[in-house]
Amino acid sequence: MPEIITAKVPIGVSACVYRCPVRYNGKSFDAVSMLGREGQDFAFTPVCPECMAGLGVPRMPIHLSGPGQDVLAGTARVKDRRGHDVTEALVAGSRACLDALERAGVRAMIVKEASPSCGVFKARVGRKRNEQIEGAGVFGAMLLDTGWFLIPDSALANPLLWWDWRRRLHAWLWLSDREIARSKDIYDAWHVLKFIVQETDRPLADRIGRELAALPTNAPQALLDAMRDDILGALRKPSTRPRIKQAMWKTYVHAKKSGTLSGIDLHDLTVNSPEVSENLMQLVKELTVLERVSFENDLLFGTSPVIRRDGRRVAAREKESPPDASAT
After folding, report:
1. Which residues on adjacent β-strands are paired with residue 149?
2. Which of 186-195, 200-209, 259-268, 309-318 comes out lowest in average pLDDT?
3. Is residue 247 part of a domain?
4. What are the strands, taking DSSP E only, across 161-249?
5. Residue 143 covered by a domain
6. By the 8 A CB rule, do 166 and 118 touch?
7. I need a labelling partner for 136 at 20 to 30 A (CA). Which of 66, 78, 93, 173 fits?
8. pLDDT for residue 308
9. Which domain holds residue 299?
10. Do residues 219 and 273 both lie within one domain?
11. Residues 194 and 284 placed together within one structural domain of the fold
12. CA angle 236-241-245, nearest 5°?
């Protein structure tokens, strides 16, 4: 059985990618429309640190003299195109956004990458558009300190990337909320999530496996918490397209060969190898169908061990097929 999240997921989003015309030039992006009906799984809270900083729309573009972490430490500044220092204003606006997200119960965020405020993995430094360094924007640096699950907006522009980020998000939320009070608890959680971690960081996955094998029956809580943090950190790591394709194909082939899907209506799925580039998006589409088919037939589909389903659908399904009391 897959693990199921029934609560609607609160998720923050940079307002400019949520159709809000808050960019410096008064324009916006629409990164969430590609989710289609899946967007109903989330409760979105759009925020804009630059608007909350009081910079207005339209406004002068801003640039950093160093990554956001340095701005927060006081060793770098934020200035607009005319040289006006807006460091304190942007820091205050970022904190206001963080407060709003915390009130909304947000623990995950879709960020506008390369933004001097919201960027997480790459921040543009300097006045030239092609000047980028590894690091975060000012608000992005604050988000990194929270330990939340952060998703770049580029993930929503590609169904393959979103398929991977979405399953990692659900797995991360599930493990974050799971009670880990005994060695068996962390072992059971690892059994569900280990294949996702292996895809991104095999050395870390092997280390966690060895530590679990050596774990005493009554391990101290601090050790259990540290192991949970290791797994959560691995789930937050961006994967690569080749790895995602390999994971998708490996799981599909295993399900077919093992007979897991035998006797089940696969809705005429005809998946070819993902090496056929024109078939890749079809593979994403059909694997999403397989996830739903697995849920409907009480199967654990390895690529997505944790899925989100509306609580009403789950309750209705359990009413139609109540669990066998003799099996307990």
Report:
1. 108
2. 259-268
3. yes
4. none
5. yes
6. no
7. 173
8. 79
9. 241-318
10. no
11. no
12. 105
C-alpha to C-alpha distance for 65 and 131, rounded to whole angstroms: 11
323 in any annotated domain: no
The continuous run of DSSP H or E covering 43 comes out as strand 42-47
Give DSSP secondary structure letters for 300-328. --TT-SEEE--HHHHHHHHHHS---GGG-
User: Are residues 151 and 72 both part of a single domain?
Assistant: yes
Number of Cβ atoms within 10 Å of the Cβ of 104: 15
Structure tokens at 273: 């190898």
Under 8 Å CB-to-CB from 86, ≥6 apart: which residues? Answer: 53, 55, 62, 78, 79, 80
Type of residue at 4: I
Identity of the residue numbered 195: F
Cα within 13 Å of Cα(122), Cβ side: 11
Buried-exposed string 25-61: b where 16+ CB fall within 10 A, e elsewhere: eeeebebbeeeeeeeebbebbbbbbbbbbebeeebee
User: Would you tell me how many other CB atoms lie within 10 Å of the CB of residue 229?
Assistant: 12
Peptide bond into 58 cis (omega under 30): yes
- 8 Å CB contact between 62 and 78: yes
Dihedral sign (CA 163, 164, 165, 166): positive
Does some domain include residue 327? no
Same domain (yes/no): 131, 176: no
pLDDT band of residue 319 (cuts 50, 70, 90) is low
Distances (CA, A) of 279 to 41, 71, 268, 270, 276: 27, 45, 15, 10, 5
What was the pLDDT predicted at 325?
42
Task: Provide the mean pLDDT of the chain.
Answer: 84
